Structure formats: structure tokens, C-alpha cells
Amino acid sequence: MWGSRRRRIVAGLTGCALLLAPLAWMWQASLVPRSYSVAEMGTPDLGGGAAHAHPDHRVAVPDLTEPGDGTPDVRVRLIARSDTIRLDSGQEMHGLTLNGTSPGPVIRAEVGQLVEVELFNESVTDGTTLHWHGVEVPNAMDGVAGVTQDAVPVGSTFTYRFRPPRAGTYWYHSHQVSHEQVPRGLIGALVVEPRGGLDSETTDLVALVHSYGGTRTVNGATGEIPVDATPGDRVRVRVINTGNGPISAWVSGTPFRLAAIDASDVHRPETVTDRHVQVTAGGRADLELVVPASGARVELSGPSLVLGPDSPAERRPEARLDPLTYGEPAPLGFDPERPDRRFDYAIGRRPAFVRGRPGLWWSINGHLYPDVPMFMVAEKDVVRVSITSRSDVHPMHLHGHRMVVLSRDGQPATGSPWWVDSLNVAPGETYEVAFVADNPGAWMFHCHHLGHAAEGLVAHLMYHGVAVPYRIGDGNVPE
Ligand code: C2O
Ligand code: CU
């Protein structure tokens, strides 16, 4: 009897071991080293292109800077601090500020001007960086901890220098522990004006939408915010969504035009009424309107800007303005029908281990972080990417480039070229996008729901011949 009991126990243990062994193996396989280079991460995906382009042409990320020293046209010093943020509602939170405020100062520059931003970390204990979201900066200025620089520790300074090549609405934010530092306030707006400045006929407003501890604000203010505008004024409102999910923006009291998406002008945008605009997480939408005698409002899914006399708020229009068919076609400047590389970026979700932790994790083409595809390109390649979500809403953001939307779920884009750097991909949707690889470096291509990114929804666009000397881990935590 004792013997058979022992046999049963042994059999039970063997059964457990048979079950546990693969689990232990999966756990073990999911562990990441204490520090690693993104260049060694995952599996290279050549997208049907050459394995090596210009092997003689090697360059390291830190050398991909703005050439020449020149005197800056715009010079800003930003001091990052652990600080108390007080909202006008009386609410207080322990957050992070730049020069004592959140959002930080609006930075304005003209196309081609040399912008120099000195970031001093006074008291952000995890270290910090600044990423210029949407700007085609040289790679070494991209501000991603562990990919394009080391996080700036307390007491240190990092200087960013770049010449923004295109006018439009951008923003900047920390790319070190970004899923915490962005919501906690290390953010600000960057407006790049055309050469010679804005046309003086238009009132130019920034509307940076950010939630502090669950309270949605515009430029740090809550509720209904009166702005200085009089009937007859033409106004451009630059809506910036710094959150993790899409927001709706619409105009009460008058028709409007969607003048730009993600810093690219819409070609011949028509005037619309009864439409709302979806602003992707990380994305921007510039709304243009003329203030009527009775006043107008720009509604931002909670707070609103009141232009002219106080006019009644209107409910969100049911119909959404669809950029796929909005505006008129214009040349792209390249032929997306003859790509050099084609990639898939299919986002699923499955139970597994990531970094030794069990959970339901995001997958990219079936693979889990850090074993995700590394999208390899060579300079001048025309690149096509098919992005699919088979899981949640994913606002997909590519650093250093702008992509043009070719189709959604097989329906071709027939309006203005729809250029994006942040694209809202809803569950079940497939977008075909294309871009020209014209900015060598190592570039993040990730979900801008920063919580998802921290859970491993991160891949990279990597140019052949680029060496990455920085390492993830050891103080660098980009997500
Ligand atoms: Cu707005 Cu990778 O960032
Ligand atoms: Cu996501």
C-alpha cells in the first residue's frame, strides 16, 4: 500500500514535471538580459529587399546629427523637475514639469531654422529625455533612451539641435519610462511655422489636450476656456492629443475645415458641418474656422475653447470626418506601387511569458517582445507596411518619417494624401501605408498607447549599416 502510494506520488510528480517543463522553458526563453542593444533584438525582416546595402557605408547613431555648428535661431533651456501640478479646478498631483509648468513652454520655430534645446534634469530620478514627436530630426536627436541616447540623469544636461524640415504641429515628450513620465507631465507643443512666419491674417492657437490624474485639460486648463478671438477672425486651432486613446474634436456654431493632420497640410480640404474629427493618440489635427458673430467653440471631448461671444455647446456630431476620402488628391513625390520592401505589422494578443512575467501579451506577426521583427531598410527604399490589429485599438507611431495611407480594409484612399506619423488602428482594421526611407538611423515603430508599448508593443525600423552603441536596461527604459 505504501509502495503504491509512493508510485502514485512519483507518477503525479512526473506529470507535473511534464507540464511544468515547457512552462519553465517558456519562462526562461522570455527573460531578457540586464542590458541589450536594440540592434541585436528580435529577428531581421528584410521585407523582400537586399540583405546588405552599401556595406562600406557604416555609421553609428551618435554621428547622425545636424551637420555644422551654426548659431541657433531658436534657443530654449528646459528644466525638468519632480513637482506639484495644480489644476485650476483645485486638483493637485505629484507630477513632472518643464520650467515649472506642464505642459512645458510652446516652442515655435520656422522651417529650416536651427533649434537648440538644452534639457537639464534637475530632479527626475529615473532620468529623462525629450523626443520630438513627428519631426524628422537626425537620428541622434530623436530622444529615445537606450536607442538614440542615454537617459539624462539628475544633474546632467543634453542638448538637442535640429532643423525642422516641414511646417506643422508637433509635440515633445519624454521617451524615458514614457508610460509614466508622459502622463505625469513631461510634455509640450512644438509649432513649426513656414519660412517667413505665419500669415498674419490667421489667429494661431495651440490646443494641447492632456489628462492629469484623469482630468482632461487643454493647455493645462479645465472646462470652458475663453480665447482671445473676435467675430470675423480666421482661427487655426492645433489640436494635440497626448493621451493613450483617440479623442474627438468638433466645432460648435460654425463650419470648419480640417487643415492639417499630423503636421501635413490636407490638400484642398472642404468645409464641413456635422462632423467630428478623430485625433489619434500622439496625433494632431489642425482645425480652421472663421468666428461667426454668434461665437463658436472647439470641443475637445470634455474641455472646450470658446471663441468670440459665449455660444452654446453642441453635442458631438454622429458622423466622423474620414480622411480616406477628404480633400483632393495631389502627387506623393514617390511611387508606392513599386516598393523596395514590404512589411507586415500584425498585432495580436496571446497568453505567454514576457520578461519572465506571465500574462496576455501583445504579439507582432505572432512574436512577442523582444523577439519581434526588426524592419530592415536601406536609404532611399520605398517601403510598404500593412498594419493590422487583431486585438485592441493601437495608435501606431513611426519615428523620423511620415507615412502615407494607401488604403483601409482594401478601400483605397481617394482624398488628399493622408500623411501620418500616428495612425489609429482599430480592432479588425488593416491599413496599407507607404513611406520613403530617407532618414538613416534606428527608429522606434511602436504603439503610442504608452501602456501597450511598455508591455512590449515596440519594434524598430533599422537602416542597414547603422550601429547602435546605446543599450536598453542599465537605466535606459524607453517605454
Ligand atoms: Cu511620441 Cu516613440 O513617441
Ligand atoms: Cu496599442
Overview features:
single chain, mainly beta, Immunoglobulin-like, six-stranded mixed sheet, 3 helices, 37 strands, binds CU-O-CU linkage, binds copper (II) ion
Would you give an account of this structure?
This protein has three domains: 38-62 and 332-467, Immunoglobulin-like (Sandwich), CATH 2.60.40.420; 67-193, Immunoglobulin-like (Sandwich), CATH 2.60.40.420; 202-307, Immunoglobulin-like (Sandwich). The protein is built from three helices and 37 strands. It has helices at residues 2-30, 178-181, 450-454, and strands at 35-36, 43-45, 59-60, 74-86, 92-98, 107-110, 115-121, 131-133, 157-162, 168-173, 187-193, 202-212, 215-218, 224-227, 234-241, 247-252, 257-261, 264-265, 277-279, 284-290, 296-299, 304-307, 341-354, 357-364, 367-368, 373-377, 382-389, 394-398, 403-408, 411-412, 419-420, 422-425, 430-436, 442-447, 458-463, 466-467, 472-473. Strand 29 and strand 30 (411-412) form a beta hairpin. The longest helix has 29 residues, at 2-30. The model has no long low-confidence stretch (mean pLDDT 94). The chain binds CU-O-CU linkage (C2O) and copper (II) ion. CU-O-CU linkage binds next to strand 8 and strand 34.
